[in-house]
Amino acid sequence: MIPKILSLESVTFEPIKQNPHNARTVFSFEVTQELCNMTGNLHGGAVALIFDMTTSTALMAASSEGFWDTGHVSRTLNCTYLRPAPVGTKVFVENYVVHMGKRLAQTTGVMRLGSPEGKVCYTCEHGKAAVGSASL
């Protein structure tokens, strides 16, 4: 269900000397009743799942042949819940690559209400590990 509601807004990959894996993705979605808790707000588990899926796309934007191109798995996913996102609200999800090493990576994510400049409702730090023959 989550992939069906997510809309990819943008993908940016702009490597610079200080950050050779400078990648960013932005998604949007509308909070549906199916994703809400009993109080009508986006469920914390849905927040974690959405971050898990979308932060990984930032890594894909910065991957290349032989480097993070064989898949990856979560090591850590730390979500912070700042304010609720009520049913019917449009939410924007921004994801950034913080670091990509040979086997480990770190991403961050921010969910904002209503617009890419809206109030922050949730944040995350997502640690990933590369899998496959390229990481062994």
Automatic annotation (TrEMBL):
Residues 40-111 form the Thioesterase domain. It comes from the Eukaryota. GO terms for molecular function: fatty acyl-CoA hydrolase activity. Keywords: Hydrolase. InterPro entries: ACOT13, HotDog_dom_sf, Thioestr_dom. SUPFAM superfamilies: Thioesterase/thiol ester dehydrase-isomerase. The keyword RNA-binding does not apply. Belongs to the thioesterase PaaI family. This is Thioesterase/thiol ester dehydrase-isomerase. It comes from Karstenula rhodostoma CBS 690.94.
